[in-house]
Amino acid sequence: MKYLVALAFLAIIASLGSALFFMMRDGRDGKPKTSNMARALAFRVGFSILIFLCILIAWKLGYIQPTGIKPGQ
Length: 73
Fold this sequence. Notes:
By secondary structure, this protein is an all-alpha fold. The protein has one domain (2-61). Helices cover 68% and strands 0% of the residues. The protein has helices spanning 2-25, 36-61. α1 (2-25) packs antiparallel against α2 (36-61). The chain is elongated, with a radius of gyration of 18 Å.
């Protein structure tokens, strides 16, 4: 499970980096703007939802456990 979470975080960071790249490069030198940046940010949102669902499913199936910190203390 740790590897899946780490891989998803790396995918999120890579998606943010590619969105930055496309933001800086698209529309320069008279070229038309493309939707590459929006697509990269959409993938980031998808990866974020995927990691949240994976953590929730892992908790429900018992693969990960709560820390034991009692609420309100």
